[in-house]
Amino acid sequence: MISTLWTWLYWMWVASEVVIAAVTRTRRSSGNVRDRGSMLLLWIVIVASITACEWIRYTIPATMFGRAHWLQAAALIALMAGLAIRWTAIFTLGKSFSANVAIRESQKVHRTGLYRFVRHPSYLGLLLVFLAVGLHARNWISLVLAVVPTTLALFYRIHIEETALREAFGEEYVAYSRETKRLLPGVF
Q1: Is the pLDDT confidence value at 28 over 80?
Q2: Which CA distances in Å does 82 have to 5, 17, 45, 60, 77?
Q3: If residue 106 lies in a helix (H) or strand (E), which one and from where to where?
Q4: Do 118 and 184 form a contact (C-beta atoms < 8 A)?
Q5: Which of 33, 40, 150, 173 minimizes the number of CB atoms within 10 Å of its CB?
Q6: Domain coordinates of the chain in residue numbers?
Q7: What whole-number distance in Å separates Cα of residue 32 and Cα of residue 102?
């Protein structure tokens, strides 16, 4: 049952990311795209991480607690939490959400919903999804390959995004940054 639910949710997530990227991508011709290659980098890292993670999973025997069902349950919980956080964050931003870094004229600094607790909840959700992918593989190498490159790519993306937001909103965003952590409430 866990395996079937995992498979459905995993492929739902993959499909949702493709749809979100296609629907919310701001055209470069609009002049307000400040992505600096971070979206392309993120997609490359995501595809490479998942590919490497799955390859390792099937070529190196499980090295993390064997076939522990509790680990599969933990992976499923992390996946569901990650999806819920990511989709809620995207829904909260509505038309302000863009797959690439772009500031729209009507955009404002969001401080409602999950944005009260962290500045980048959609990235927190994505990190939880990749933690889930690594745990699901039941392999320490896969866990590292799923989490570390994605985290590094997201840190670059956050840097680019926050630079654009500070330029667009000035002191309002700086004040929000002082009050609200990036990814983990009260921590980071």
Answers
A1: no
A2: 15, 13, 18, 27, 8
A3: none
A4: yes
A5: 40
A6: 2-21+33-179
A7: 5
Is residue 188 a contact partner of residue 181, using CB atoms and an 8 Å limit? Answer: yes
Q: What is the arithmetic mean of pLDDT over 171-183?
A: 96
Distance between CA atoms of residues 133 and 77, nearest Å:
11
Q: Residue type at 135?
A: L
What value does the mean pLDDT of the chain take?
Answer: 90
Please count the other Cβ atoms lying within 10 Å of the Cβ belonging to residue 121: 23
pLDDT higher than 80, residue 172: yes
Task: Give the ranges where 94-139 is alpha helix by DSSP (H).
Answer: 121-137
Tokens 């490497």, located at residue: 52
- Which residues partner with 102 through β-bridges? 33
Helix (H, G, I), strand (E, B) or coil at 37: coil
Decide if pLDDT at 31 tops 70: no
Note the pLDDT of residue 1: 66
Q: In the block, which residue shows the tokens 């302000």?
A: 96
User: Is the pLDDT at 69 greater than 90, yes or no?
Assistant: no
Q: What is the pLDDT of residue 109?
A: 94
Second CATH level (architecture) for the domain 2-21+33-179: Up-down Bundle (1.20)
Enter the tokens of residue 134.
Answer: 């690594």
**What pLDDT does residue 29 have?**
44
* Backbone Cα Rg of the chain: 17
